[in-house]
Amino acid sequence: MGLAACAPAAGKEEVGGTVVRTRFTLASGTQVGATIQDALSSRTNHVGDMLRATVNSDIKDAQGYIAIPAGSVLALRVVKLAPATNKSQADGRLALTVSTVTVRGQVYEVNAPIASTPHTLVGRGVTAGEVEKAGGGAVIGAVAGRVIGGDTKGAVIGGAVGGATGTAVAIHFASRDVVVTPGTRVAFSLGQALTVSAR
Prior knowledge:
Blueprint: E1 12-15, E2 18-21, E3 23-26, E4 31-36, E5 40-41, E6 50-55, E7 59-60, E8 66-68, E9 73-82, E10 93-103, E11 106-113, E12 120-123, H1 128-149, H2 152-174, E13 176-180, E14 185-189, E15 194-197
Antiparallel strand pairs: 1-2, 3-15, 4-6, 4-14, 5-13, 6-9, 7-8, 9-10, 10-11, 12-13
């Protein structure tokens, strides 16, 4: 992708009597360190969202040439994302994969999973109104049911509805979101060889 059509197989060409490189190839398994530039939260983000990251340091090929300069931009795709939904759940779910890398203005597909992404769990909390619902939902529901239904059956149904509201709020309160902050460092390895243009 983006390679000069006249470049020889060895990735070199002669310009004014001087042999210059036209492309660089990184072997499968090459390690790349990167820094995430965008914030991520399981409360606001979703599977399929994209994040930006930048390469931490120059990535060189087997001959010592810089194939991917430091600062090159990576596109990361969210492939798994979910909060921890109860106190017994040790962690939420998070998985990112590198989709592309932009090198010297040209975009190359990568498709390499991030080994692991450092993150924190942040409690969602609830508003004052939601706390009130959680504490008195069943009682309020029972009263409303009695008034609307006009009998004990109405009160029981109303209590069940109010209790369900309180339970939903309690579950929300127990949820802890997976959060990744800008500046988080990650690493990945190329699943296959990557060839990039030298220009």
